[in-house]
Amino acid sequence: MNTKINLAYQSENLSKSMTVILNGAMTQAQANQISDSLTMDHCLICSQVGLPSPLEAALNAGEIDSVTEYDHAWTRLEDWAATVPLVEDLHTTQNATINLSPEELADAMLNQRWNLLREIERLGIPEFDLEQLPQNLLEFADHGPATHLQGADQGAHTQ
């Protein structure tokens, strides 16, 4: 028995999904451990835990010519998007497509501190040019989220 995981990448430059099959059956404890290690958006940096990257697969297959400033380093684990999956739903009798076990993936993620800058440099993603953004987006970035977060933070402390 092996484990099927669906990876998804989405940017202005590319939308790509891919399936990988890990060597061995994942346990529910491993699925929970992976869930605890993902970002809030259920994302990870594939190369830092031994998974293939949909972005790099698209580059290697010639689906895109190069990365742009609109690309990023994050890949979503689709099976974890709504909740921690039941491992029975991930199990498959298909042959493994990568030499990585669920235990190795869970262990790698447990100890991972996502190094975004290293991955951006490795992929050659150019810096985003803020001067190209419309002014209203820059104003929102300067005032919108901070105002929202301050209000949420104040509410959390007034109980």
Describe this structure in words.
This protein is an alpha+beta fold and 159 residues long. It folds into two domains: 2-128, no CATH class; 130-159. The chain has six helices and five strands, in the order ββαβαβαβααα. Strands 1, 2, 3, 4 and 5 form a five-stranded antiparallel β-sheet that branches. Strand 1 (2-10) and strand 2 (15-22) form a beta hairpin. The chain is globular. It starts with a strand and ends with a helix. Mean pLDDT is 84; it is low at 140-159.
Order of helices and strands: EEHEHEHEHHH
Please give the radius of gyration in angstroms.
18 Å
Report the major sheet.
Answer: 5 strands, antiparallel
Strand content: 15-25%
Helix content: 25-40%
State the distance separating the first and last CA atoms: 50 Å
Number of helices: 6
Overall geometry comes to globular
The chain-level mean pLDDT equals 84
Poorly predicted tracts of residues: 140-159
Tally of structural domains = 2
How does the helix and strand content classify structurally? alpha+beta
Number of strands: 5
Provide a brief overview of the structure.
This protein is an alpha+beta fold and 159 residues long. The chain has helices spanning 28-37, 54-60, 87-90, 102-110, 116-123, 135-157, and strands spanning 2-10, 15-22, 43-44, 75-77, 91-92.
